[in-house]
Amino acid sequence: MRKVQSSLLIAFIIILFLAANSIYVLDQRKIAIIIQFGEVINEVVEPGLKIKLPLIQDVKFFDKRIQNLTFKMSENSEVVAFDQKTMKVDAYAKYKIVNPKSFYEAVQDDYRFRVRLESIIESGIREVIGRVKFIEILGSKRNKIREDVIDIVNENVRSFGVDIVDVRLIRVNLPDKARNAVYERMITERQKEAKEIRAIGHQESEIIKAKSDKERAIIIAEANKEAEIIKGQGDAEAINIYAQAYSKDRDFYEYYKSLDIYKNLFNENSSLVLSSDNKFLKYFNN
Quick check: pTM over 0.85? Predict the structure, then answer.
C-alpha cells in the first residue's frame, strides 16, 4: 500500500513539475521566443496563457516597448567637425525590438546589444559630424544631422531585429583649450561689433543733430519773419488809428500827445533849459 502511495505521490510531483514547465504567461508588454535545443523555433507576440514542451523547450522574454539609451563619449574621445573643430558629444537613443528571433541570434540579450549600439552610434555621429561645420551643428543643420545619424544607425542595426526610433545630440562641448579660444574669439568679435555699432550710432547722431539744427534755424527764421510781418501790420494799424483820431480833433490830439510826452520826460532828476515862449511849453504858459 505504501509503495502505491509513494508511486502516486511521485507521479503527481512529476506531473506538477511538467505542468509548471509547460505553461507560461506572456505579458502584454513583452514578446517571446521559443528555444529548442539552442535554436529559435517560434516567436510569440500575442499576450496570454501559453503552452510549451517541458524540459525540451525554453522561453526567452524581451520588452517590446521603446527603450532609452544615453550615450556618453569617453573622456579621451573627441569628434572632429568638417572645419577641424574638435568637440565632445553626448546623445540619447530610442529603440524598439521588432524581431526577437533576429535580436536573440545576434546579441542574445539587451546588455550586449546596448554595448554594440553605443559603438554604432559613436561611429554614426563621427561620420555625420565630419561632413558639417561646427556652427551648423549648433544651429541650421541640427535636425538634418539627427536624421542622418538615425539612418546610419538603422542601417547598421537592421540585422539585429531592432528599429531605431530616435537619436538626438543632447550636449556638444568643446575641449577646454578650444573652448577658451572660442570664447576669446567671441569676445573679440563682440567688441568689434560693439565699436562698429557705436560708430554708426555716433554718425547717425551727428546727422540727426545737423538736421534738427537746420530745422530749428528754419523755424526760427520763419517765426521772426512772421513776427516782423505782424509787427509791421500792427504799426500800420496803429498809424491808421492815430491818423483817424488826429483827423477828428486835431487840437485834442496835440494836447493828449503833449501830456504823454510831459509824463515821460519830466521826473525828479530832469531839467530843461527852454525859452518861455517855446512851443513845447505852450500848455504850461496857458
Answer: no
